[in-house]
Amino acid sequence: MLIEQGASYAGILGIGAYRPARVVPNSEIVDAIDSSDEWIQQRSGIKTRHIADDSETVVSMSVAAARDALAAARVDARQVDCVVVATVSHLLQTPSAATAIAHELGTDQAAAFDISAACAGFCHGIALASDLVRGGSARHVVVIGVERLSDITSPTDRGTAFIFADGAGAAVVGPSDTPAIGPVVWGSDGEQYDLIRQREDWRDAIAAEAPEIPHLVMRGNEVFRWAAFSMAKVAQQALDRAGLTVDDLDCFVPHQANNRITDAMARAMKLPSTVRIARDIIDAGNTSAASVPLALERMIRDGDAKSGDVALLIAFGAGLAYAAQVVTIP
Ligand SMILES: CC(C)(COP(=O)(O)OP(=O)(O)OC[C@H]1O[C@@H](n2cnc3c(N)ncnc32)[C@H](O)[C@@H]1OP(=O)(O)O)[C@@H](O)C(=O)NCCC(=O)NCCS
């Protein structure tokens, strides 16, 4: 039997993003949840978020973000062998969003599938893509994190309505001359799998007296404590596995869950003040699987992350699933 020879190293070759046009400030949502702009900003950091309209679907936002990433990477869609889409808000159970996206992008029948790892999905996708490229199963992989959380968030749920939002981010992963995606540190704490979840499954939702799309529910305080205490350790392990220390870092790009979680992680890791920290949550909210690539794209666009910089990515959420790795900025 012959075996595939992959690339020696894999790296992110380009990053892209799509942010829905409509910007919703806190003032538009506070009445329905008896809250205030001040409370939301102080507790989460969020000032505004982007909310998709009917034309901004999981597929259309993904295609826009992926085209952006392919252009940045200077890779033609026909060179893409695999499309991996991380999402929990593609409401058509089958076929996958990835197959439609691969077709619309103009790939030559690329392998395409969705993964469900909630907010940690994009970092799971980067780990998979890196191994596909190094294992020889694909030469170029498009990894997309995309959500339309507004479809599955109740506007009257005090614990989630101000947090969740919409958008898409994408990365092209391909061969690299140098190691540019470090070893992944990932896992799941299934004992706490109920902390963030779809309220009920589809059969129960449809059987209800007043059927509606089941929305997300979250035990925010417990999620907060888990993330703030456990995720800094995972981030540190990702650095250790890459053979680096905090002094080697240029950028820290954590899942944009809550600015206070980000602060707690930065403190616990003793990040030097020179490390630039992603704060996209302020005007993007928490976009689950899209949050890390959106934050990364923002840092590159704003000049906070330059080509060759070393960035630590970490994402975590429902499951409780998590994944972290060090990457080199393309
Ligand atoms: C959601 C979150 C901001 C709430 O903050 P918190 O400090 O945990 O808030 P609590 O639920 O303990 O409530 C504290 C107080 O605020 C009030 N409160 C809760 N939600 C509120 C809201 N939307 N507006 C105003 N007040 C609110 C509560 O009633 C409570 O009041 P009390 O002290 O008088 O009883 C926070 O738990 C969080 O960010 N959790 C993690 C969320 C997250 O990252 N999720 C995604 C992971 S992928």
UniProtKB/TrEMBL annotation:
Active-site feature positions: C119, H255, N286
Question: Where do transmembrane segments lie in this chain?
Answer: none
Which BP terms from GO are recorded?
A: fatty acid biosynthetic process; secondary metabolite biosynthetic process
InterPro entries noted in UniProt: ACP_syn_III_C, ACP_syn_III_N, FabH, Thiolase-like
Alphabetically sorted, this entry's keywords are: Acyltransferase, Cytoplasm, Fatty acid biosynthesis, Fatty acid metabolism, Lipid biosynthesis, Lipid metabolism, Multifunctional enzyme, Transferase
Q: Which GO terms describe its cellular component?
A: cytoplasm
Start and end residues of each Beta-ketoacyl-[acyl-carrier-protein] synthase III N-terminal domain: 113-190
Protein location: Cytoplasm
What does this gene product do?
Catalyzes the condensation reaction of fatty acid synthesis by the addition to an acyl acceptor of two carbons from malonyl-ACP. Catalyzes the first condensation reaction which initiates fatty acid synthesis and may therefore play a role in governing the total rate of fatty acid production. Possesses both acetoacetyl-ACP synthase and acetyl transacylase activities. Its substrate specificity determines the biosynthesis of branched-chain and/or straight-chain of fatty acids.
Name under which the protein is recorded: Beta-ketoacyl-[acyl-carrier-protein] synthase III
Native source species: Nocardioides silvaticus
